[in-house]
Design a protein that fits this description.
The chain is of the alpha+beta class and about 220 residues long. About 20% of the residues lie in helices and about 35% in strands. It has 5 helices and 13 strands. The longest helix has 12 residues.
């Protein structure tokens, strides 16, 4: 499989036609977890995200998860948009050139615009936070979200309460699970890795926490 395409149902057909000529597998935006499983399994050369999907919290979380996985370091991430009037795929705003576009498509390399609103800070190992009262390991953090590893079940679209420990008794952040995956590490108990999207957060407080606990 050379390209995985993920996007909104009403835009996939037109974009798929433009990408014809190469090996291609498409997924609806509703099947983002299945798409990520295929990406992990097949290691495609390119992952193409339709623009409107890429701008959603689920799309941003998928991009973050791909970028965070060392085994996917060689996967090229690209944004593709469809001109509804002309029915054609057109290039997204210019970015620094990195690699040739996928066969048959007018695309641009994926950058932080529309996929990650704020930079993620890697957190020192051993830092636990509370999600619905249960301790989970904090992997990385930004003012808009976080990545965690949890022994308890976490499901996409689940609303949770997050508490970041601090001297004031804890920074409380309502959040929604943007994505989640089940993992079976060697010589360790099963766990869930998940991306959290904060619904309301004080940027200054979160940035202070990042500065104190960054790796």
């Amino acid at each position: 499989m050379s390209t995985v395409l993920i996007g909104a149902d009403d835009r996939l057909a037109g974009i798929r036609a433009r990408l014809a000529g190469g090996e291609l597998q498409t997924f609806s935006e509703r099947d983002a977890l299945a798409a990520f499983d295929a990406i992990l399994r097949e290691r495609p050369a390119t992952v193409a995200l339709e623009r409107t999907f890429a701008e959603t919290s689920r799309g941003r979380a998928l991009v973050d998860r791909i970028k965070a996985d060392p085994s996917l370091a060689d996967v090229q991430l690209r944004i593709i948009t469809e001109d509804a009037a002309a029915g054609q795929a057109v290039a997204s705003p210019p970015s620094p050139p990195e690699a040739a576009p996928a066969a048959g498509a007018d695309t641009a390399p994926l950058d932080g615009r529309g996929t990650r609103r704020t930079p993620r800070v890697r957190i020192k190992p051993g830092m636990d936070v509370l999600v619905d009262g249960s301790p989970v390991a904090l992997v990385d953090l930004s003012t808009t979200g976080a990545q965690v590893v949890s022994p308890m079940i976490l499901r996409p679209n689940q609303r949770v309460r997050v508490i970041l420990p601090n001297a004031g008794g804890g920074l409380r952040l309502p959040a929604v699970i943007a994505w989640a995956s089940y993992e079976l590490p060697r010589q360790a108990a099963p766990r869930y890795r998940a991306g959290l999207q904060f619904e309301a957060a004080d940027p200054a407080s979160v940035q202070a926490f990042c500065h104190e606990h960054q790796a």
